[in-house]
Amino acid sequence: MTTLTDPPKESFRLGMLIYDSRYRSITIQVAALIAFLIGMGWIVSNTMNNLASLGKEIDFGFLKEPASYDINQRLIEYTSRDTHARAAFIGLLNTLLVAVLGCVLATIIGVFVGVLRLSKNWLVGRVMTVYVEALRNVPTLLWIVFLMAIITETLPAPRDFKSGEAEMLLGGTVAVTNRGTYIPEPVFSYSLGNIKLLEGFYNNSFRFEVSLDLIVILCVLIGGILISGLIKRRADRVQAATGDRPKTWHLRLAVVVLPTVFVLWLLGLFFVVPEIKGFNFRDGIHLRASFLALWLALSFYTAAFIAEIVRAGIMAISKGQSEAAAALGLRSGRIMSLVILPQALRVIIPPLISQYLNLTKNSSLAIAVGYMDITGTLGGITLNQTGRELECLLLLMLIYLTISLLISSVMNWYNERVKLTER
Amino acid sequence: MSTKSYVRTEMLPEKAPPPTEVGIIGWMKENLFSGWLNSLMTVITAYLIFWVLAAILPWLMNSVWNAGSLNECREILQGEAGACWGVINERFNQLMFGFYPENLYWRPVLAFVLMFVALAPVLFNPMPSGLKIAWGVFLVIGCWMLYRVGAPGLAYVVFLVAGGAFFLDRLASKMVWFSALFPFLAVWLLWGGTAWNVTMALFGFVIGYLVYRFLSPAVGFLFGLILAVLITVAWWLFLAGPVAATLAGSIPLELAPVESRKFGGLTLALMLGVTGIVGSLPLGIVLALGRQSDLLIVKSLCVGFIEFIRGVPLITLLFVASTLLNLFLPPGTEFDIILRVMIMVTLFAAAYMAEVIRGGLAALPKGQYEAADALGLDYWKAQRLIIMPQALKISIPGIVSTFIGLFKDTTLVSIIGLFDMLGWANAIRANAEWTGIVWELYAFIAFVFFIFCFCMSRYSMYLERKLQTGH
Questions:
Q1: Which of B106, B117, B146, B356 lies in the 20 to 30 Å Cα band around A128?
Q2: Do residues A311 and A398 both lie within one domain?
Q3: Which among B465, B89, B94 is positioned nearest to B268, based on CA atoms?
Q4: Which residues of B touch A147 (CB under 8 A)?
Q5: For B414, nearest residue in chain A (alpha carbons)
Q6: Closest-CA residue in chain A for B407?
Q7: Which of A332, A254, A314 shows the shortest CA–CA distance to A111?
């Protein structure tokens, strides 16, 4: 009779750290970690030595000191006596402004071009292909600088409006000049005033005012949209019960529009038209040349990418889907909204959001045309004035990183929500 | 009872389709005027095209090619609309070469044309026979370019010998060796100095290979590899410099050295773009594999790197390169600005590349991994033989669009004060002779970028078709 015994236990040898797959992964990880730590330690100690020899130390105190430079493009109040932190805040708001407006315009143009590129019309399809290829294959920065040059060099100067060489557009309300475009400004005669927020915090750096008028209007608008949603739900219920869908579009429109118009009338809305005074325009909203160049260039450039995304999304839905919907007796509008779009959006939205992310990051090219975004204030003038490269760039990267991570977490949330549940 | 009925026994001849359904009219009816909406769109688009052409064509027809300043140009035009290409004509060298010494222009040009010779075996393998005629045309154009910049005779010889090898089938397959050699040759041509520096750098790889080849049977594969890497690095750090200096002392083999700050224009953009492309693909593959791996620490390091780089704009990284990188290195290190930018651009592109390749890896069916395991392949063999070829094939469109994005992003260096084409455009517009010039200058630069990027995207389509294995 034989007995089975375990093979003799191998004693641990040093070579097993590399040749035994049980230990190898640990070896590799430890080696990677050590290499990483040594590398980081090397960089940090170098930085410390270099800073010490320059007589600097890492200190964010400069943010509380007066910036003493002017920012011409600002959404909220700012003077040169304000702090560097406030200058950075103004810059951040400018970045967000151009990013949000850019995303909106790029989406509109992109969807338009993407859909038209799929059109059966040969000529329209070709023109849209030319648009996409021309925009995509030329650097963004070139478009931005190019547009800025076109605006400053070829458009009429404000004084030409005085001498009558140039005329205002749209019935004398909009002036397109080489310094930017002036558009009418909405003003309320019975304004409710503003609420001041964050006053006195961090040397007043983050104070800002919120217009009460705007809050009221937004509340009424959102209320209207909610009520309109209720009406739609009721129509759905009626349709489910009786099979007939009551006509509700006029009611839903009225619920949204009428109260808003009423509130606007109550607040006494009127428009102040820009007027030429001396050598420049007064009143109205001034969209600066740098802002326009950046905004339009980013929008048109990103729109070319969005167009491709939209086209790919629609083409990804197999023809059988729309044929099956037609066989069920749905009209073409309903086919689009109930069958094609919900499926296409699942394909379209993730790359679309990453285009939004790209647009936001590309808005940092503002520095090339002098639009004062966060890169222009914190990473530009503040950095040069204070000589605090390390702190400024760290902060700048941190801010961009936060924006990016926020946007991509929205994307992840959406992906989770619309994910196909596979069995 | 007569059952008379008429039955046709032969077919009627086919009638021709109505003239409105065939030919150009039928095509137009189907594609341009199939409904009132379609007709309206056609008319509007046609009007728009006409409007644009009506503005551009007379302007183009009326071009002025020889003018020293915008005013001179306007005098020649006498108030008529016309393009003033004189600016391109006069500043062409700066837009192409920056401050590179004028008598040495042949070196970047030679590097440029040799770049295509080095790319050809990588891009077209084997070379399609239809391309041979195009290749002949390219050789002629290359010679003409060399002639225009007054290259010495040796440059023609090098170019024609390397380029001509493609016509001999036996040599064409060996030209990959030239591709491997090209980076070193290009560095020597562009920066000049003694040839021994790059030769010794190249020699480091040879030493490493020899050490690996002869030591690994004795000490095992992994130790052999580690030893080879260590010895190579030691050679570069300690021995390559002195040896090169000694050799240069006896046999100079020298080209006039050119400083980095003199690089500019298209040369700079191509240098940055090509190094970025060459560096970012392998780095991206490594990062993607790291991100996919089971090793927690390696994985989190890779994820952290990728997400950080993708979360910040390139311009902030370039700021880091121009202001901070010296702070991170030991005191007194002088580090070439172009090299710094190259490193940053490569790292930036690598993070995007990693995500593209990760997409390709994720799209691969799990059965492929399992099949590789079932065949008993180890990790690297499975990656090299089964996973990567398929994953890379899936991600070709993404890879190429990352390349295109990288090449376009090289324009950002104009913001940190390097003179690429956009930097030169600013300088030219600031010059008194050419203030007020807009369209011609930017249109030219846009055109140059368009050519390169468009060719890249077309090549990716060709490659996709070539590698298509589905039905």
A1: B356
A2: yes
A3: B94
A4: none
A5: A368
A6: A139
A7: A314
Closest alpha carbon to A141 in B309, B161, B446: B446
Domain's final residue, options A271, A290, A310: A271
Q: ipTM of this model?
A: 0.89
Judgement on whether residues A237 and A116 belong to the same structural domain of the protein: no
Q: Which phi and psi angles does A173 have, rounded to 5°?
A: -110, -25
Please say which residue of A271, A305, A320 terminates a domain: A271
pLDDT attached to residue B201: 86
Q: How far is CA A189 from the centre of its chain?
A: 33
Q: What are A348's strand-pairing partners?
A: none
Out of A19, A123, A361, the one facing B42 most closely (by C-beta) is A123
Q: How far is A123 from chain B (nearest CA, A)?
A: 6
| Angle, CA B352 vertex, CA A37 and CA B453 arms, to 5° | 140
Look at residue A342 and tell me if it is in a domain. yes
Q: Are residues A308 and A389 in the same domain?
A: yes
pLDDT confidence tier of residue B225, bands split at 50, 70 and 90: confident
Question: B411, A139: Cβ pair inside 8 Å?
Answer: yes
A238 and A305 share one domain: no
Amino acid at A331: R
Tell me whether residues B327 and A362 touch, CB distance under 8 A: no
Task: Identify whether the C-beta of residue B138 lies closer than 8 Å to the C-beta of residue B163.
Answer: yes
Nearest to A71 by CA among A282, A381, A297, A281: A381
Q: Which two tokens stand for residue A176?
A: 């397109």
| Contact criterion met (CB below 8 Å) for B306 and B287 | yes
Question: In angstroms, what separates the C-alpha of B153 from chain A's closest C-alpha?
Answer: 37
Nearest to B317 by CA among A305, A167, A364: A364
Task: Say if residue A89 is in the same domain as residue A204.
Answer: no
Q: Are A113 and A304 in contact (CB under 8 A)?
A: yes
Residues A286 and A245 in one domain: no
Q: With a cut of 90, say whether residue B345 has pLDDT above it.
A: yes
Min mean pLDDT across A248-252, B247-251, B359-363, B460-464 is at B247-251
Q: Is the CB of A29 less than 8 angstroms away from the CB of B298? A: yes
Residue type, B314: L
Q: Is the peptide bond before B126 cis (omega within 30 degrees of 0)?
A: yes
Q: In this structure, are A126 and A225 located in the same domain?
A: no
Tally of domains within chain A: 2
CA B288/CA B291 separation, integer angstroms = 5
Q: Do A138 and B446 touch (CB under 8 A)?
A: yes
Range of the domain at A255: 186-271
Q: What is the mean pLDDT of residues A262-282?
A: 85
